[in-house]
């Protein structure tokens, strides 16, 4: 199951008639990122001073026992500053960064020294301290560049509106561009010069948002790279989530099998036993009635056997084990209410577990087509691409399928994610619908 631990939130955006280059100076994103760069310098200054001072103090005290807890406290404070930076990035940069892995003493130990040791061994804590050191020089650059560009560009653009204040209150005809010790000075005061200055300001106003966004993008990389969870921790959480999905899926399947046995074959066999008991009692008194009851019981036995076969097919079809994915999917398509064309192009059989997941994925997708799509035809394609097993189920129905929460496709996506698979749904309103599934290719062991 893929989890994104450091990605910008996408804002809803409709079609725009105004080009992006003209919208950018007035968009909220530009001013949020500019505010982020402005507020970054004072925070980075405080974080840098704290990190350098406390680290130097801790290292200097390492000759005594006090150095170790001081360094641990330094790392704990750096993690606290990381919380503030993630909040700023979330609110101003719209950057979602997951909380890093918590500090946990190993071996179930507890106590102050256990926590000190856990902090000192935590790579995440050291990355937070590194961020406090590296962000300071970058914050100086971004603060100066963004502030100067914003101030100069808007001042020049609006120069025709405030130029009159210079001769009125500044005792000079206009904005001074040059002056020397001999008394020569060049002022922007004629209508032409004012227009040129304003035009140059317009160019800067149009360019500045993209420079600000580029600077902010570097901040995004710093925050997501140093203040988020490590790749190892992210993968561990992902595997834990996948394990939970697998456990829930297995429990749901067991409950389904138990319910089907209890409500179906078991109930039918109990009724069959009662009927045979009554037939045995009537065998001597009324042989004809007993024969009819035995005949009815024979029909019940056939129905019970059919239900057991269907149940066994739902657990793992025999044709899949004996003949592979191609014949199994063809048999599955034959039971669909919509004509289905099946194409399977595999160089070899995948591992039984992957084969089973592929079979039940196609089975559920074909059931959705039968129940909801109102399609006339459908198609199933299976092939191998590099180290992935690809499944594609398409139909010409009315579309509108979605993996939104609460739907069968959402549960199917979770099942595929539990084995590093992926489910992609392309189903615009009005159709057609194409569902593509990817599974890892694992060959059958010899």
Helix and strand run: EHHHEHHHHEEHHHHHEHEEHEE
Mean pLDDT: 80
Q: How many helical elements?
A: 14
What is the helical fraction, as a range of percent? 55-70%
The biggest beta sheet reads: 5 strands, mixed
Stretches where pLDDT is under 50 for at least 5 consecutive residues are: 1-5
User: What gross morphology would you assign?
Assistant: elongated
Radius of gyration, Cα only, in angstroms? Answer: 35 Å
- The proportion of strand residues reads 5-15%
Give me the count of strands: 9
Tell me the strand order in the biggest sheet.
5-6-7-9-8
Find the structural class using helix and strand composition.
alpha+beta
- Total number of domains: 3
Distance between the termini: 29 Å
What tags apply to this protein structure?
single chain; 446 residues; alpha+beta; Single alpha-helices involved in coiled-coils or other helix-helix interfaces; Heat Shock Protein 90; 3 domains; five-stranded mixed β-sheet; 14 helices; 9 strands; 11% strand
Quick gist of this model?
This protein has 446 residues and is α+β, with helices and mostly antiparallel strands. It has 14 helices and nine strands.
Describe the structure in your own words.
- This protein is of the alpha+beta class and 446 residues long.
- The chain folds into three domains: 16-229, no CATH class; 233-315, Single alpha-helices involved in coiled-coils or other helix-helix interfaces (Up-down Bundle), CATH 1.20.5; 323-440, 2-Layer Sandwich (Heat Shock Protein 90).
- It has helices at residues 20-23, 28-60, 67-92, 112-121, 123-157, 159-162, 165-169, 191-226, 231-285, 287-315, 318-323, 325-334, 352-373, 408-417, and strands at 6-8, 95-97, 175-179, 185-188, 340-345, 378-385, 388-395, 422-426, 433-440.
- The strands form three sheets. It has a five-stranded mixed sheet, with helices on one face. A two-stranded antiparallel ribbon has the order 1-2. Strands 3-4 form a two-stranded antiparallel ribbon.
- β5 (340-345), α13 and β6 (378-385) form a beta-alpha-beta unit.
- α2 (28-60) runs antiparallel to α3 (67-92), α3 (67-92) crosses α5 (123-157) and α9 (231-285) runs antiparallel to α10 (287-315).
